[in-house]
């Protein structure tokens, strides 16, 4: 069998030569701003990665070097530009049913326990994807919830909440429109049940078709911007299950605990927090009890 010659988009991007060179000093300043605004850590010595992510934006502004860009960040237009900077440098790797063991646990353990305590009956059972990226994590949880609800006598009241620091990626999540290459992890049976497929046209090949999340899920979802390092209580509905996966690895130890505490304020007592398998916690914040691999219950 021939080995695939396809190169990932990120790697292909890094093979390109940026049109605006970046000094180590400029990279350090940009990384400092990113850390202060979003808590995201990037190695300042990785100028190649930083410049590839920002090159298009700096070129669009008509600037010839990053000293000009840094001055622009301090201008009256700075706050809006800093948001664009964060969006350019934030990582949005996601897929349907990524780290599938969590979804299996949700279906067989988490949801039954929550329903036993009245979730879905006395109040809507809410699943929150705290760093939802393009939405695939949240839609995966929604599929599990919808299928489980249909098996429960009388059904359940439930809803989905997605937040992210990037307004651009939230727009994609809210639309729920994806290419065929973004559907890996989703079986053909689930695709036929939860996706609407664009109609074929004379100029559209099967690979160019797009798919949209069905209204059965879209109508239950609410998306809003959120910075995990700021107070979230009052801005996010109380949730029974929170996905906060593969985000904390980009934070320092202090910011990691701060983000978890902010998220915990929005979890109902007895609710669950799901972290990524790479989000190693040296110590648990008070009020959390381990309930499984990278799964924690709020006391």
TrEMBL record:
| Enzyme Commission no | 2.1.1.80
The record's section on InterPro entries has: Bact_Chemotaxis_MeTrfase, CheR_C, CheR_MeTrfase, CheR_N, CheR_N_sf, SAM-dependent_MTases_sf
Classification via PROSITE patterns: CHER
Give every CheR-type methyltransferase domain span: 15-299
Q: Which UniProt keywords apply?
A: Methyltransferase, S-adenosyl-L-methionine, Transferase
Record flagged with keyword Methyltransferase: yes
Task: List the Pfam families hit by this protein, alphabetically.
Answer: CheR, CheR_N
Catalytic reaction list: L-glutamyl-[protein] + S-adenosyl-L-methionine = [protein]-L-glutamate 5-O-methyl ester + S-adenosyl-L-homocysteine
Q: What GO biological process terms does the UniProt entry carry, in alphabetical order?
A: methylation
Instruction: Write out the GO MF terms.
Output: protein-glutamate O-methyltransferase activity
The protein, known as: protein-glutamate O-methyltransferase
């Amino acid at each position: 069998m021939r080995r695939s010659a396809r190169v990932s988009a990120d790697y292909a991007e890094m093979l390109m030569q940026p049109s605006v060179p970046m000094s180590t000093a400029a990279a350090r300043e940009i990384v400092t701003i990113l850390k202060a605004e979003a808590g995201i850590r990037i190695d300042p010595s990785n100028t190649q990665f930083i410049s590839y992510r920002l090159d298009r934006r700096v070129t669009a502004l008509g600037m010839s070097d990053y000293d000009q860009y840094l001055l622009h960040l301090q201008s009256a237009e700075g706050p809006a530009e800093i948001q664009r900077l964060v969006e350019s440098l934030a990582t949005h790797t996601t897929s349907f049913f990524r780290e599938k063991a969590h979804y299996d646990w949700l279906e067989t353990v988490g949801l039954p326990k929550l329903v036993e305590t009245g979730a879905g009956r006395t109040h809507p059972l809410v699943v929150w994807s705290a760093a939802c990226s393009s939405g695939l994590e949240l839609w995966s949880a929604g599929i599990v919830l919808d299928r489980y609800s249909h098996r429960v006598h009388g059904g359940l009241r439930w809803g989905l909440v997605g937040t992210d620091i990037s307004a651009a990626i939230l727009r994609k999540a809210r639309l729920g429109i994806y290419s065929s290459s973004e559907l890996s992890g989703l079986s053909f049976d689930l695709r036929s049940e939860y996706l609407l497929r664009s109609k074929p046209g004379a100029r559209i090949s099967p690979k160019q078709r797009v798919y949209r999340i069905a209204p059965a899920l879209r109508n239950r979802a609410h998306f809003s911007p959120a910075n995990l390092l700021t107070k979230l209580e009052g801005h996010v509905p109380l949730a029974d299950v929170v996905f906060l996966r593969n985000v904390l690895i980009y934070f320092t130890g202090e910011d990691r605990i701060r983000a978890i505490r902010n998220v915990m304020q929005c979890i109902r007592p007895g609710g669950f927090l799901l972290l990524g398998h790479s989000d190693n916690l040296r110590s648990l914040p008070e009020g959390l009890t381990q309930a499984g691999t990278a799964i924690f219950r709020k006391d």
